[in-house]
Amino acid sequence: MEQSKFNRLMKTCIKCQESIEIETRFCPKCGLDQNQITLVASSSFLITLCILTIVGSVITIGRALLYEIVASAVEQDYYRGWIYFWSSGGTLIGAIMMLQKKINGLYVYSISQVIYLITIVVASFSYGDVSAEIAFFVAMCFFLPSLVMLYLYWLKVVRQHLN
């Protein structure tokens, strides 16, 4: 005995709003792939991450150069600005590669981001006792968003576009 249309789980087509069974991949009326919306949404998510990374990398490159200019007037052996500069350049290159759907961009981004994160941790512990709490707070303002971005790039929904 065939189940009635009312007893089956139903959904509506994302294009024409036709009522279709929930397991149906292609709409019988318009033919649209119902999984297509998931791919479009995850592609938009990747593009958004890459744009945020590009903007953040350019800002960090500028910040790193400013650090180097100020440090050169005060101390001779400052090196972290250049690490920030090169690691941000790597995240910038990685984001551009990921916009081109290249999986290697994820690896370039990840290595550069890990170097950046390690440098932030080292920098936060290099200040004296007087400014330790302030240095830790400032470091966390850079560290946490960078860590979240690294995590978001490794989500399955992002990686499926990078082949």
Could you outline the blueprint of secondary structure elements for this entry?
Blueprint (H helix, E strand, L loop, with lengths): L9 E3 L6 E3 L14 H39 L5 H20 L3 H22 L7 H22 L2 H4 L4
Antiparallel strand pairs: 1-2
Helix pairs in contact: 1-2, 2-3, 3-4
Kindly summarize this structure in a few lines.
The protein has 163 residues and is mainly alpha-helical.
List the defining traits of the structure above:
two-stranded antiparallel ribbon, 4% strand, transmembrane, elongated, membrane, mainly alpha, transmembrane helix, Zinc ribbon domain-containing protein, 163 residues
Structural account:
It is a single chain. The chain contains 5 helices and 2 strands. The protein has helices at 36-74, 80-99, 103-124, 132-153, 156-159, and strands at residues 10-12, 19-21. Helix 1 runs antiparallel to helix 2, helix 2 (80-99) runs antiparallel to helix 3 (103-124) and helix 3 (103-124) packs antiparallel against helix 4. The mean pLDDT is 85.
